[in-house]
Structure formats: structure tokens, C-alpha cells
Amino acid sequence: MNLHIRPILSALLRNRTGAILVAMQVAIALAVLVNALYIVTQRIEKMGRPTGMDVENILIVQSAGFTAHYDLKSSIQQDLAWLRSLAGVLAATPTNAIPLSGGGSSQGLTIVPGDRTKNDSFGYYEVDEQGLDALGLHLVAGRNFRHEEVEPPITLDDAGRFVGNVILSRAAAKELFADQNPLGKPVYDTLGKQATVIGIVDPAMNSWVDSEHADWVFYMPRLTSALYGGVRYIVRTRPGERDAVIRLAEAHLATSNPDRVIHFVRPMTYFKDLSYLGDRSMGIYLLTVTGLMIAVTCLGIFALATFNVATRTKQIGTRRAVGARRADVVRYFLVENGMITSAGVLAGCALALATGYYLSLEYALPRLNLYFLVGGVLVLWATGQLAAWQPARRAAAVPPSVATRTV
Amino acid sequence: MLKMQDISKIYRTDLIETYALRSFSLEVTAGEFVAVTGPSGSGKTTFLNVAGLLEDFDSGRYELDGTDVRALSDDARSRLRNQRIGFIFQSFNLIPDLNVQDNVDVPLRYRGLAASDRRERITSALELVGLASRARHMPAQLSGGQQQRVAIARAIAGDPAFLLADEPTGNLDSLMARQVMDLLEQINEMGTTILLVTHDPELARRAQRNVHLIDGQISDFRAYEPRPAPSGAADAAGAALA
User: Fold this and answer.
1) d(Cα A172, Cα A170) in Å, to the nearest integer?
2) What was the pLDDT predicted at B237?
3) Structural domain harbouring A376
4) Cβ neighbours for A24, distance < 8 A, ≥ 6 positions apart
5) Which residues of chain B make contact with A406, given a CB cutoff of 8 A?
6) Which regions of chain B are under pLDDT 50?
7) Is A401 in contact with B81 (Cβ distance < 8 A)?
């Protein structure tokens, strides 16, 4: 098949202004497309990370005592007894913080007491023996907490108290113990107090989804304290029963204890969605802008091709008269458009790589994945050809008799 | 070579039907030089379009080299135009963005010829029209007469059996017109059949035969004697006239 590349190129070079503008448009669109899609993909991967928790079936209750008669321990016992008695509830635990919510507590852990060389901080959660079940976490080694291990809440007088046992996330264990088996080994808090690792869960996430180490987390068997600004309950329900339990909990807990107030009863998805709102908004924004850019680029290609067809009617008729078939005319315009798009795509590759490099330097983003570049090239090239298809078909419909018309 | 029988071509609008050709019959034998004359609106260009397979007709029968063209697909018509017919247009119809050589190359590329073959044909055609030295010039750098000679080179480069010229001297001054007509005669003498559409009786006199059209119908056949047809063609032409 003769693509007539040389004469088409030579004709194109004689009318290059429009072609250069469209090629530049293609180049910019490619650079935006590739980098935006890469960023969006990273955000999607981030949002899709396994949390290890049964997020869809968990609800969170937050309450706080406000009268002098409020007794934290008995209030927790009453609330837990009622929550656990509900038919749809699988497990419930009091806790100091809400995973994935953006707020919580963290603490340094080391495997050498008083080791100041390490500054690693791990998100932690105070839970009782139902803690892992309430979160839906998967214990991959060791054992769960026992009821008798659950320690009383800390107070102002013993705020620096640590616990006897801890359960680590696998990522936390790997950070602390590298490839050693952590079970039965001691870990130390920043005050040098010791706890023993009795279990490993995997996967798991702490409260800060944007953290580089969102999977560094450990669990302590301790009733939560009023020092954390109230009590939170993590309640896991059977699939499909979460919303019914929320309604029941809202109605009951609001009146069951006049000495405390219920701040909210919300699904855990609320907190997760809120934490990822920025990522989601960024993704939608980038996809919208990219979509618009591609649409504008397609319009540019379509407009140039339409203009070329409109201004070359006589030439097309002449080509048809001297033997061009309709397919030859379609091919002519697609090859011409392909050359413009290819030039734009080539320039766009360089622009995309430069933009990716700049973003990686300025915003600490990972370097652009070349598969995205290849994908972007294919998408833009195919889209560009599709945009030129209709004008090319219109060109092919020009009858050969146009060649003999003098007006 | 070309045989038209009772060809009718009607242009229709919502309100009226106009017969551009009405029961038009003509036979042209190989090697003839036939002029088709007539006043404006007489159907000359429509005849040329139909003869050159640029346009369909409504009724009648048209055979080109023994092939009934009515039955041909659009692609087959394109192929036939490309291989058997050369066109020369009043306004040259050169592609302004291509140089002389590439303009001549256009129909050859559509024929799918090898580059070396095309190069050879382009050189021969340009030499014949006296423009071999202008192969790299753009059409805008040439005079009207030179542009028409490029168009002739484009028409003959594919070695067509049949040349259709639509007022080829209409946009030229008399000197250039004479040069173009000389060239056409020379091509005809080499054996190519030529159908020349013109409104100029002087040019028509240089053909061997004149077909005069009025209102889409042949009103007059006239044979001229000064220039004999190439050997073999004259008898056939005479037979057609008879």
C-alpha cells in the first residue's frame, strides 16, 4: 500500500502553521494526559490499599461524659454490654482513636530500651479482647488478647504507663525486627517501658492515610481513657446490618446515660471517605481537565482536517479524476493527520518526560512510569485519527466531476 | 474504443428536470482526434464528464474499450480512469503544494507503479512537453502555458489510450494556446485518441472530426481534411462518420 508519505509531507510543510498549532496542542495534551493519569492511578492505588479492616461493616460511636457523676469504666461496660447484645453485632471494643480518620495517637517503639537513634512513630489503639474482631483484622501469627490482660484506663497520675503485651502490624514488626520472629520478644516505649509482642496482624492501617508509614500500627490491651477526649466504640456488624445498628445505637445511647453525650454514630466509611476526599477530588479534577484537553485537541484536529477538506475540494476532485479511489482519499487525509499527530506526540513525549521529572523533583512524586507514556501515545494517536475520520470521509464523498467545474 | 448509444443525462431539482444530454450517440475509434464544440450550456462538459467516467448517466449504453461502464463499481471506474484516460482541464488543476514532478506523479502513484518506473515515465512526459528542466518548480512559478503543459505531462505519463481535454486553451493567450494545440496534435500522432471539448471553432478545425452539440444533442458532424489521422485510425473514423 502506497501511503504517499513524501508528497503529503512536502505539501504539509508548505502549509505548516495550522499543522504546527495542532501538533503543539497534541504535545501539551499528551504531557497533561500522561502525567495526570499517572497521578490519578497512584491516588487510586492509594485509596485501594488493603486496610485489613472490615471498613464497610464497621460503625463508630463517640461519646463523652460531661457531669460529675459520669463514671468512665461503668459507662463503657454498660454500653459494650448493650452493643454486644444486638443481634446484628459481631464484636465491639472501646478505643482511643478511629483508624483511617486522620486523627489518633502515636508512640515511638524500639527493641532496645532508651534507643535514641530511632525515631519511628507507630499509630496505636487501645482495645479490649474483642478489638481485633471489632476491626475485622486478620491475626497471622501469635494470639489475640485475653479478657484478663485488658488493663485499666490510664489517668493523669499514670499517663506514662505502658502495657504488658502488644500486637503489631506486620509492617511494624518488620520495621522493628527486620526478618527476626518478633513473637515473645520485647518492645519498649519512649520511656523505656517494656511490652511483649504476642501477635501479628496483616494488613493493618493507622489513622493517617497520607503517612508514608500508614501501615505502622500496634494494639494495646487497655480500656481507653477520658484523657483522649471521650470514648470511641468500634462496632462491627454482620454484612448489611450496619445501618440498622446505627439507627438503634443512636436512639438508645442518646438516652441510656444522662451523664454523657453522644457526639456521633457514623459508619467507618464516612471517616475513610473523608480522609481520601482530597485524593478523590484531585483525581476527579485531573480526569476532568485531561478529558477537556483531549476533547479540545480532538476539536482542533477535526477543525484542521475539516478546513483542509473544505479548501481542497477541487484538488480532491482532481485526484479522484486521475484515479484516486474513495479509500485513497480517506487514506490521504488520515496519513496527513497521522503525520501532524505523530509530530505532536513526539514533542509530547519529551514534554511529558520533562513534566514528570519536574513533578518528581518538586512534589516528591515517583518518576513517570513509561508504560503510561506508551499508553498515552496510543490513546492520543488513535483519538486523533478518529477525530479526522469524519472529515476524511467527507473528502472521499467529493465527486470526481468537481475537477471539471470552473466555479 | 468509445461507443455511446442513446445516452441521456438529466439534472434534477425539486422543480425542474434539465436534459444535459439527450439520446446522445457517438463512436470514437482508436487514434482519432475529435473536437466537441457547442455554445455554453450545450452539454459539452457533461459529455466530457460522462465520457471520462466522472459522472453517471441516466439511460443509454456506454462502452469503453468494449467494457460496459454502467456496471462498474466506483473503484473500478477509478481504476479505468487511472489506467485508460488522461485528463486535461481548462484551469490546469495542478496541486499547488506539489512541485511539477510530484504533480505528474499523482496518477502514477494511484496506479501503484514502482518508484523507478514512475521516475522514468515522469522524465519522459516532462521531456515531451519541454519542461524537464522545471521538474522541481512549483506550479506558481510557471506561466499558464507551462502549467498546462505540466497538466498534459500528468495526463500522458500513465500512457493512456484516451485523452480528454476540457477547453485546454481556455485560460491561455493565443501563442500559448497554439503551443498546447501543437502538443496535443503531436500526442495524437503518437497514437493517443483525443477528445477535445472547446467552444472555439478555430481550435476545432485542428481536429479530424468535429461533433457539434446543441441542447445536449448532436446537431452536426463535420470532418476536416487538413490533418490526416494516424495510420489505421482514419478508416475507422471515416466509418464512424458514415
Assistant:
1) 5
2) 37
3) 5-48+277-404
4) A344, A347
5) 90-91
6) 232-242
7) no
User: What does the pLDDT look like over A354-370, one tens digit per residue?
Assistant: 999 999 888 878 888 89
Beta bridge partners of A186: A196
Instruction: Please state which of the ranges A165-179, A210-224, B189-203 shows the lowest mean pLDDT.
Output: B189-203
Size of interface A-B (CB pairs under 8 A): 86
Query: Tens digit of pLDDT for each residue in B185-220?
Result: 999 999 999 999 988 888 888 899 999 999 988 887
Going by C-alpha positions, the residue among B174, B133, B128, B119 that lies closest to residue B151 is B128
Residues A99 and A139 in one domain: yes
Query: How many domains is chain B built from?
Result: 1
A197 forms beta bridges with A166
In a domain, A63, yes or no: no
Q: How many CA atoms lie within 13 A of A244 on its CB side?
A: 9
Cβ-defined contact of B98 to A7 (cutoff 8 Å): yes
CATH number at B147 reads 3.40.50.300
* Digit-coded pLDDT (tens) for A311-348: 999 999 999 999 999 999 999 999 999 999 999 999 99
Does A61 fall in a domain?
no
Q: Looking at the predicted complex, does its ipTM rise above 0.85?
A: yes
Residues contacting A210, CB < 8 A, separation 6+: A275
Q: Cell 519541454 belongs to which residue?
A: B130
Give the model's pLDDT for residue B225. 58
What are the residues of chain A with a beta carbon less than 8 Å away from any beta carbon of chain B? 2, 4, 7, 10-11, 14-15, 314-315, 318-328, 399-401, 403-404, 406
State the number of CA atoms in the 13 A half-sphere of A283 facing the CB.
Answer: 14
- Report if residue A54 sits inside a domain: no
Residues of A in contact with B74 (CB under 8 A): 325-326
Q: In whole angstroms, give the CA distance from residue A79 to residue B209.
A: 115
**How close A307 comes to chain B (CA, Å)?**
16
Cβ contact, residue pair A326, B109, below 8 Å: no
Residues on chain B touching A324 (C-beta within 8 angstroms): 78, 110
* Contacts with A3 from chain B: Cβ below 8 Å: none
| Residue A342 and residue A250 share a domain | no
Look-up: residue for cell 520472629? A181
pLDDT of residue A290: 93
pLDDT digits (tens, 9 = 90+) for A220-243: 999 998 777 789 999 999 999 999
